[in-house]
Amino acid sequence: MATKTYTLEMHTFSKPRLVLNDPNGQAVFTGDTHTFKPHVVLHHPSGTGDYATATFHSFSSRIDCTLANNSFELSKGSGMFRPKYEFKATNGERLYWKSSGAATLICYDQKDQVVAKCQRESFFGKSRSIEVVGDMGNDHAVLTTAIYMIVLMVRRSNNAGAAGAAGGGAGA
């Protein structure tokens, strides 16, 4: 099966903060992250208004999502060592994202076949590659949930770093 590789650019100070480009370099989505709800807002270049959103919950592992005015959720399922986040693709199939190391996310289908993979392009880089297998590259639920999972990983990493910095100065 053919693989499509998308590139997610993450900008800290410029808007839009998120840009997802297709293999030809054309923007598929642009978006921003916020500290308020919704935490991620994505726009489709051909439309106006919010195309997709994600709201992270502090005291639960659920992520409330919208995509083209349809609501769904990424819900944390069980995993032996790493939790998985399950969702329903546009075609109705149940898929799940699972981390595989510090910088890699993998999306699996119901048969545990790899559907998509996200990874950092460089150690310090702000861009991520999203490889999608077969016709799933046209599934915006897979692409948007990939972005949400990447943003969630970055937020958790930043929060852990801030907590470590705060704790490190306490004994000085």
Q: What is the general shape? A: globular
**What is the subunit arrangement here?**
single chain
The CATH architecture comes to Beta Barrel
Mean pLDDT: 86
Strand order of the largest sheet: 1-2-3-4-5-6-7-8-9-10-11-12
List keywords for this structure.
globular, alpha+beta, 172 residues, Porin, 1 helix
In short:
With 172 residues, the protein is an alpha+beta fold. 17% of the residues lie in helices and 41% in strands.
What would your notes on this structure say?
- The chain is an alpha+beta fold.
- The protein has one domain: Porin (Beta Barrel), CATH 2.40.160.
- Helices cover 17% and strands 41% of the residues.
- A 12-stranded antiparallel barrel has the order 1-2-3-4-5-6-7-8-9-10-11-12.
- Strand 5 and strand 6 form a beta hairpin.
- It is globular.
- The protein starts with a strand and ends with a helix.
Architecture blueprint of SSEs:
Blueprint (H helix, E strand, L loop, with lengths): L2 E8 L7 E4 L5 E7 L6 E4 L8 E5 L6 E5 L2 E8 L6 E5 L5 E6 L4 E5 L5 E7 L6 E7 L6 H29 L4
Antiparallel strand pairs: 1-2, 1-12, 2-3, 3-4, 4-5, 5-6, 6-7, 7-8, 8-9, 9-10, 10-11, 11-12
